[in-house]
Design brief:
The structure is a single chain. About 75% of the residues lie in helices and about 0% in strands. By secondary structure, it is mostly helical.
C-alpha cells in the first residue's frame, strides 16, 4: 500500500528513488499519454487564459494532470515482480 501511495505522489522518479524500481511496462504507455496530455493541456491553458492569470492557469492544470495520473497509478500499479 505504501508503494502505491509513493508512486501516486512521486510517480516514476519516486519508485526509482525509494524502491529502485522502474515503471512497470503495463503503465509505461499510459504514462506517456498522461505526460503528453498534461503538457498539451498546460499549453492550451496558457494560451487561452488572459495574461494576468496565465501562470495560475498553467499551474492548476499541471496539478490536475499530476493528481489524475497519480490516482490512475495508485489503482493500476501492479504488484512488484
Amino acid at each position: 500500500m505504501l508503494r502505491r501511495v509513493i508512486a501516486a505522489f512521486g510517480h516514476a522518479p519516486a519508485l526509482w528513488l525509494v524502491y529502485r524500481e522502474a515503471l512497470p511496462k503495463v503503465v509505461r504507455r499510459p504514462n506517456a499519454f498522461a505526460a503528453v496530455g498534461t503538457v498539451l493541456a498546460m499549453v492550451v491553458a496558457g494560451v487561452a487564459t488572459p495574461a494576468d492569470a496565465r501562470w495560475a492557469a498553467v499551474f492548476w492544470t499541471w496539478i490536475v494532470g499530476h493528481f489524475a495520473w497519480g490516482a490512475y497509478l495508485f489503482v493500476k500499479l501492479p504488484d512488484p515482480e
